[in-house]
Amino acid sequence: MRLIHSDGYSGFSLSLFHGRQIPPYAILSHTWGADDDEVSFEDLSQYSGLHWAEKPGYKKLQFCARRAAAHGLQYFWVDTCCINKSSGPELSEAINSMYRWYQGAARCYVYLSDFEMRGSNLGSKDWKRLRNSRWFTRGWTLQELLAPQSADFYDATGKHLGDKNTLSRWLSDTTGIPVAVLRDRNWRHNSVEEILSWAQHRQTKREEDGAYSLLGIFDISMSLIYGEGRDKAYRRLFKKIE
User: What are the residue boundaries of the Heterokaryon incompatibility domain, all occurrences included (predicted)?
Assistant: First the structure.
């Protein structure tokens, strides 16, 4: 697992850990902008921060570093730059491990880049706008909601909106996921059909990711075959579930 370390100013570096060597870490849940807007693995590995510090995605790293430091954590994980996506084996390992990484995080920060709270507390109009956040429409964010013991929600300015437990009833109304599942992280008694319904209207950039984003939720591993198409990916998923 590759983690980001901040020097406390504007410098970030990557470190690779294995197994029990992995230190306590925070993890970011967010939605991607355009690929060129995000700070990538190549950016952190090869180039001067003067280049990628101008990217919109740099704000996410700064946010996560500040929150992690406030919680006494030296390391944090952000998918845009902690995975070498040019390596097929590494990408496959990361996707098959991602649920476990969110599950094992000391802190999970949900960063809603398209929502800003207008006052010091959420008002009735805020709740309506919050429901329309892109974060609730993406396939990958389903496991990012389910896996962590807790998840803290923040708006685009870094204001804290609440956590998965305090917001559980509203999150249940918005996502269709039962409150008990959100609080206890236990869906062993929920049917496969019900679990799939939680993901039914969510979207992914690549069609196969609709199936791949459910691997951790069903506690299975599967090879990634981009280009196989949505239907074949789901058929393989269902065969594994059986």
Answer: 25-114
